[in-house]
Amino acid sequence: MHTGLTIFPTDYSISMPDLAREAEARGFESLWVSEHSHIPVSRKSPYPAGGELPKMYYDTLDPFVALAAAASVTERIKLGTGVCLVIQRDPIHTAKEVASLDRVSNGRFLFGVGGGWNVEEMADHGTRAEQRFRLLRERIEAMKTLWTEKEAEYHGELVHIERSYMWPKPVQKPYPPIHVGGAWPSAAKRAVAYGDGWLPIAIPGDRMAERVVELREMATKAGRDPAKIEVSVFGVVAKEKVLAGYRDAGVTRVVLGLPPADRDTLLPLLDRFAATVRDVG
Fold first, then answer.
1. Is 170 helix (H, G, I), strand (E, B) or coil?
2. Cα(150)–Cα(134) distance, integer angstroms
3. Which of 46, 90, 174, 215 is found 20 to 30 A from 104 (Cα to Cα)?
4. Distance between CA atoms of residues 74 and 228, nearest Å
5. Residue range 158-181: mean pLDDT, rounded
6. Which fold has domain 2-280?
């Protein structure tokens, strides 16, 4: 089982180059960042975790800029979006950003995607909440075409791209792995339909061992190789018992959450996390 880290990168937290270097030095497999373009003042959409929306949601850097900075000072650690809100992005620009980041990182990008929860935020981008998962699928399908075809073309219900040239192409072939974020069972079904991994958020009593078995069965029924669909659990607490449980459940990767804190605060935390991971084995 791989172990990654995730953070909301902000202008007051540790810099992404510093964090990436320190994470790589401690042997973490991957580093993931979140995305919100903006937070509308209305705040009609409730925060999924309950209570007030944490400040970091308002302050997060652009994920592709943050990860490019991390890529520039590292060699091995993988770099992921957790998640990129594709439904709020132009698919042509996003396809180029993904391919460009995969190039500058020499094939280390993990493309976590999702449909989001903030209805007002997506509305400002022209996205209707009830259409977002159809739009997510079509934009992913369109980007796959842009990454793999010399003359790319895509026509769906919501997304249309006429025959076009788009370079660069990603280093990873046919494209960076797509990890579909969201809860069971809907997001798992989307992962089987057009992804390479399922990226759920850790919740108490998530019965992940059962979910892994059910996901594999779902993939087999769909004609997919279940071994090629990863399960990466996001926001995991760094406790030995928790990590061992996910390991024994057959999870591919756990991603430990970091607060958007400064260097002096985070380095001891990274040391503690790394020690816990070593103890689990």
1. coil
2. 25
3. 90
4. 26
5. 98
6. TIM Barrel (3.20.20)
pLDDT tens for each residue of 245-263: 999 999 999 999 999 999 9
The rounded distance, in Å, linking the Cα atoms of 10 and 12 is 5
How far, in Å, CA of 126 to CA of 116, rounded? 14
User: Three-state DSSP class for 254?
Assistant: strand
C-beta of residue 47 within 8 angstroms of C-beta of residue 53? yes
- Sequence spans of domains, the chain: 2-280
What is the Cα gyration radius of the chain? 18
Closest to 29 measured CA to CA, from 61, 58, 8, 6: 6
Please answer whether residues 170 and 125 qualify as being in contact, where contact means their C-beta atoms are separated by less than 8 angstroms. no
Region for residue 138 given its phi and psi (left: phi exceeds 0; alpha: psi -120 to 50; beta: otherwise): alpha
